[in-house]
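Following the same procedure, sequence and fold were stored together, as reproduced here:

>
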Amino acid sequence: MCHVIVTCRSMLWTLLSIVVAFAELIAFMSADWLIGKAKPSSSEEVDNRTGGSQEPYHPTLGIYGRCTKISHMQLSRRDTLCGPYAETFSEIASGFWQATAIFLAVGIMILCTVAFVSVFTMCVQSIMKKSIFNVCGLLQGIAGLFLILGLILYPAGWGCQKAISYCGHYASAYKLGDCSLGWAFYTAIGGTVLTFICAVFSAQAEIATSSDKVQEEIEEGKSLICLL
């Protein structure tokens, strides 16, 4: 008989697992890892209608994507153009960024798998006599290690030619030059921290779903068990 067990701790762990997976995935796909040095508008021409010049803009660079702006001279406005600069894996600007992409991709795949499995932990609490919470917590810990490796290797690629074109000639490994870090990098770091919190909290979710009170309600024949 299937018992649906819902506790505050198990639900919090499930929601946090889903949030972490999505946060890391969005950060990985974003081009806002590096914010490049300000660039003036095309040909620095004065807008005849307003009497002012267009403000400089900051292009952004991700692991495999970038965002820049294309000036439309006739309309005196700029449109943002975002997309991958690398059509294949080998075209990623730096070997360090290629390694970063691999480590982050593996970590995110594990997190997405755990997030998917966590939805079913309300009905299935064990697999082959092993707690599914403990197994998922272990996988989240492994994913966190992959994410850390990726984030450590990423700054080593700041000396590549692509990064230098965005950050100036003073950019080098672990030196930003004229660039600054974008929200995607900070999101990836925050998601990594939350990944380890999820891994630790999975033990609390397991304790909550296997408590004496839960067992008492199972013995009473209840199929839907909701506890604080």
Notes: The longest strand covers residues 65-72.
